[in-house]
Amino acid sequence: MDIIERIRASYPDLTKKQKAIADYLTANPEDICYITLAQLSQNTSACEVTLLRFCQKMGCASFLELKNEFRDYTQTMIKLVSSAHFIAPKLTTGSASEKEALLSEIFNKDVCALSEYYSNIRLDSITRIADEIRKSRRIYIFAHDLSKIMGRFLESRLKILYFNATLVDLGNLEETQYHLQNLAEGDLAILFSFPRYFFPIGNIARKISGSGIPILAVTDSDTSPVAKYGDHLLICPGQTKFFYNSLALPMAVLNLLASCLVIDNVSPSEMEEFKDTLSS
């Protein structure tokens, strides 16, 4: 029985105050992975002693043990709803010509998506994002699963230009908690969020936004879990026939953003020397 099931099973026997704590925990299970006892006390309007008694009621000797239980629950949910999968193709004959026709369709869809995106893109939004990056003291790039490829690409581009950029693996809850707790004024959080969306990503974005740290959301839709928290948005639709996301459009847009930073940060006289620093 996981921690959520235990809380629900114990609910009828809880006091009014304990039920209020239980309601908060079950409504925000991923939050508990990233907050302190003092923050939970503030969020639930319950004193720390009351919270510790609640932990014991749930069979946990300490708040840390309760957090670990919620981490286990969150990791399970991540595996269930956040992991990327593929959709098996439905082929009629399996012949070479049928496969080639299918590949041609996939290729043309990517080309059309890129063409449509660049026909409608507002380049002033790219320059505004570049301005935000330039003025940031530290840049934290939060990504999970396939998005880590995009995050690592952006991190490498930023480091070439001597920005203080760090890629944070959302799948590592301890690493994520550490960086969330250490965000400070002057930092910028870049959140990648593509289907299947990382289970706790909405609450992570809300927490960052609530602390006053600006957010660049790189996502597939303005209805995604992070979009409403983004001070800046890079919307990169990426649906494909067999996979949840194509990297073609997001990578092209990130390269455009990096190119904008090069234009702003590298003088014409330094451009040849800069090219020599680029990795193959």
Task: Provide a short characterization of the protein structure.
The chain is of the alpha/beta class.
Biggest sheet record: 5 strands, parallel
Strand order of the largest sheet: 2-1-3-4-5
SSE class: alpha/beta
Question: How many H/I helical runs?
Answer: 12
Helix content: 40-55%
If you compute it from the alpha carbons, what radius of gyration comes out, rounded to the nearest whole angstrom? Answer: 22 Å
Task: Supply database-style keywords.
single chain, 280 residues, alpha/beta, 12 helices, 5 strands, 54% helix, 10% strand
Description:
With 280 residues, the protein is of the alpha/beta class. Helices cover 54% and strands 10% of the residues. The chain has helices at 3-10, 16-27, 37-44, 48-57, 63-81, 96-120, 123-134, 147-160, 173-181, 201-210, 248-265, 271-277, and strands at residues 138-143, 165-169, 187-193, 215-219, 232-235. It has a five-stranded parallel beta sheet, sandwiched between helices. Helix 7 crosses helix 11 (248-265). The radius of gyration is 22 Å and the shape is globular. The relative contact order is 0.12.
Question: What is this structure's SSE topology?
Answer:
Elements: H1 3-10, H2 16-27, H3 37-44, H4 48-57, H5 63-81, H6 96-120, H7 123-134, E1 138-143, H8 147-160, E2 165-169, H9 173-181, E3 187-193, H10 201-210, E4 215-219, E5 232-235, H11 248-265, H12 271-277
Parallel strand pairs: 1-2, 1-3, 3-4, 4-5
Helix pairs in contact: 7-11, 8-11
